[in-house]
Amino acid sequence: MAKEKFPFQAEVSRVLQIVARSLYSHKEIFLRELISNASDACDRLRYLALTDPSLLGGGDTFKVTLGIDASERTLTVADNGIGMSRDELVENLGTVARSGTQGFVDQLTGDEKKDMALIGQFGVGFYSAFMVSRKVEVTTRKAGDETAWLWTSDGKGEFTIAEADRAHLGTTITLHLAKGEDEFLDRSRLESIVKAYSDHVAIPIVFADGEVEDTLNTASAIWTRPKGEVTDDQLNEFYHHVAHALDAPWHVIFNRVEGVLAYTNLLFIPSARPFDLFDPDRRHRVKLYVKRVFITDQAEALLPSYLRFLRGIVDSEDLALNISRESIQHDPKIARIRSGLVKRTLGELKKKADKEADAYAAFWKNFGAVLKEGIYEDFANREAILALSRFHSTGPEGLTSLDDYVGRMKDGQDAIYTITGEDLDVLRRSPQLEGFKARGVEVLLLNDAIDEFWIPAVGAYKEKPFKSVTQGSADLSKIADAPEAAGETPERAAEPAALVRLIAALKDALGDAVKDVRTSERLTESPTCLVADEGDMDMGLERMLRRHRDSTLGNTTPRVLEINPAHALIRRLAELAEREDDAEALGDSAHLLLDQARIAEGEPVPDPGAFARRLASIMEKGLAA
């Protein structure tokens, strides 16, 4: 078969450009990444061979082999794992086949430090080979296939694939080292890198010199060692290996459960948000082992999706070694392990929240939106997750818990008030908050999409109902005024009779564009705001569904337009409503008030041309007066 030439996916080319500039602070990390990939390949073949031993091709001793050729200036990293087919070479080494890839590339700035953090979250292990290489060759034969393949690239935009001669299965990566990278032709240097970064790898990493092979690592599963004998550095490097990440773990959960069901878990909470955290598939990345044999990293029944930020392993002594990925989903033992892992993780988070508030705030910034999915999805652990949840609010700076919020509730306040949206700054400026701020009533600012779903599912916390400040009427009369507002003189409101005429005129001018027009108790500074009527869909939820193009919504639900009778503009319009000759100006003003309220909510005006015409007309009349 002739050599085929392929261009790299555009996203890969961008990544390679950064990697080629030696983005990593320590270039030797490339060896860790290649060894980690080789170890994964061996794990996957060992699992498949449980049901099809013929895939092993006559050998069941797995290893990763390092070799150097000083005269050719090459370093090889070889494994006898599962290997790759031609199509898998194209897919795995020519593209970044992952949800959100384009978004990742769009965030690359050219600032090496910032891009380093992004790449560390994204995980581009194989491409790190180009930090030290002028050319990389990958020779591979997939288990069960007869044909071997050779992938070649200089990392500058394209790669080639051709048939190759390879008698045994697995993969060999040959790095043709770039000028100045001679340190990686030194056996002692390679040995020190393996000891530092890959000693925990559970299969032998050997250095081959002719027929002689020396094992460089301990080659025992780190989670089988006594906890007290495992150092922090070893835990960190195992995290890097299992998570394919560059950050340090925020917290380690390492324990053994014994009894009727025995298992070990070594789980890590990252300190940086993994790039695929919001992948639509919401898959976890924890590996399941049975008696130290890798089974799968797709055991979706092992952990709920709201803990998908966890990385690490779970190893059970009591599951069947040949358990299938399908039967895992229905195995009652897996369900019991899952329950134990959830309780352990939530318990560890509670300890951190109680003892290290600042550190917990960093965790919440990264993973709070994901953990809150459990409030909606996991009824059994709902109360525990609610207690762990933190929120921004109009009260004290920083994050607050629901318990702290309830403890600060005002006399006469019988609800936990909330407002939802995407942008915290926009929420803080929302006119619907004015009356609550004036009385010193704290409002939770909820800016995660999941907030729209768990609040109606929960309904209340400690018998205090959640109530949106953008829905229904706002009866604040039972709540005591804030001390600082008690001595303030309220603005004079428009005359009641004039207000009645103005409201009637506004309703007539706006027609079906609004559901109702009424005076507001929630406004103190702004002239108008929009709210959802009692029983209608909350405004934040409707905006979110429209953004995701939910075609079942139909036309926008008309909102209630609330007016502030004490605002100078509303008083002036009330006066205009008494004069028949100003009906046209009042009509234009009515639509401008509605558009102004929409803009304050961050919503577009439906007819920008009409808005501009009305605004110009009003300004012209005002300047001429």
Describe the structure.
The model is unreliable at 97-101 (pLDDT under 50). This protein is α+β, with helices and mostly antiparallel strands. Helix 9 packs parallel to helix 12 (382-388), helix 18 (496-510) crosses helix 20 and helix 18 crosses helix 21 (583-600). The strands form 4 sheets. Strands 1-6-5-4-7-3-2-8-9 form a 9-stranded mixed beta sheet. A 5-stranded mixed beta sheet has the order 10-11-14-12-13, sandwiched between helices. The protein folds into 4 domains: 4-211, Heat Shock Protein 90; 223-357, Ribosomal Protein S5, domain 2 (2-Layer Sandwich); 360-486, Rossmann fold (3-Layer(aba) Sandwich); 496-624, Heat shock protein 90, C-terminal domain (Four Helix Bundle (Hemerythrin (Met), subunit A), Up-down Bundle), CATH 1.20.120.790. It starts with a strand and ends with a helix.
Strand content: 15-25%
CATH architecture of the largest domain, by name, is 2-Layer Sandwich
Form type: elongated
Round the mean pLDDT to the nearest integer and report it: 86
Q: Rg from C-alpha positions?
A: 32 Å
Q: From the 3D structure, determine the CATH topology of the largest domain.
A: Heat Shock Protein 90
Per CATH, the class of the largest domain reads Alpha Beta
In the residues, how many domains can be counted?
Answer: 4
Which consecutive residue ranges, at least 5 long each, have pLDDT under 50?
A: 97-101
Query: What structural class do you assign from the helix and strand content?
Result: alpha+beta
Helix content: 25-40%
- End-to-end separation: 86 Å
Report the total helices.
22
By CATH, the superfamily of the largest domain comes out as Histidine kinase-like ATPase, C-terminal domain
Q: Kindly report the spatial arrangement of strands forming the biggest sheet.
A: 1-6-5-4-7-3-2-8-9
Strand segment count:
22
Biggest β-sheet description: 9 strands, mixed
